Amino acid sequence: MVDEPEVSLSQEELEALCRASVCPVCDVHKAAEEIRLRALADTENVKKRLLRETEDLKKYAGESILADLLPVLDNLDLALAHTGNLDGACKNFVIGVDMTRKLFLDAVKGHGLIQVEALRGGEFNPEVHEAVGTVEDGELGDNRIAQVVQGGYTLKGRLLRPAKVMVAKR
C-alpha cells in the first residue's frame, strides 16, 4: 500500500472548493442563494424593528401613568377656576392650591408632558383640539376657540389627550 500525502485545507479553502463543485448557474444554487439573501434581509428588518420598538417603549414608558394623573391636574384647574368670589380668609388656600398645581405641572413636564395650546380666540386645530360644541360669538371669527372645556396634553410630541374646546360660529 502506498501512503498518500495528507492534504490539509483551511476552512476558507474548503468552502471555496465546495462552491466550485456546485454548479453556480444551476437553478438549485440560485434558489438557495435567493433564500439565503431573503433570510438575511428579514433578519436585518427584524433587528431594526425591535430597536425602534424598544426606543418607543423607553420613550413612552410613563404614558399610562401620566394619563392617569391628568384628572388630578384637571381638578386643580377646576378648583382655581372657581375662586373669583372668595373672601380674604380663603386667599391663602387658593395660593396653596395654585402652588400645588405649579409643582405638579413642573413634575410632569420633567417627564415630557406639555399642555396643548388652547386659548380663547386661537385657531381651532383638529389635530390637537376636540370640538365638543359650537357657540355663536360675535367677537370671534369662524373656527376660533371660544372656550376651553378641558386642557389637552402631549407626551414627547405624541398627543396624549386633545384639548376639548367650544368653537365659535357666526
Automatic annotation (TrEMBL):
It is found in: Cytoplasm. GO terms for biological process: protein folding. InterPro entries: GrpE, GrpE_CC, GrpE_head. Pfam families: GrpE (PF01025). Keywords: Chaperone, Cytoplasm, Stress response. The keyword Chaperone applies. GO terms for molecular function: adenyl-nucleotide exchange factor activity; protein homodimerization activity; protein-folding chaperone binding; unfolded protein binding. GO terms for cellular component: cytoplasm. The keyword Transcription regulation does not apply. Its main location: cytoplasm. Homodimer. HAMAP family: GrpE. PANTHER family: GRPE PROTEIN, GRPE PROTEIN HOMOLOG, MITOCHONDRIAL. Belongs to the GrpE family. Participates actively in the response to hyperosmotic and heat shock by preventing the aggregation of stress-denatured proteins, in association with DnaK and GrpE. It is the nucleotide exchange factor for DnaK and may function as a thermosensor. Unfolded proteins bind initially to DnaJ; upon interaction with the DnaJ-bound protein, DnaK hydrolyzes its bound ATP, resulting in the formation of a stable complex. GrpE releases ADP from DnaK; ATP binding to DnaK triggers the release of the substrate protein, thus completing the reaction cycle. This is Protein GrpE.
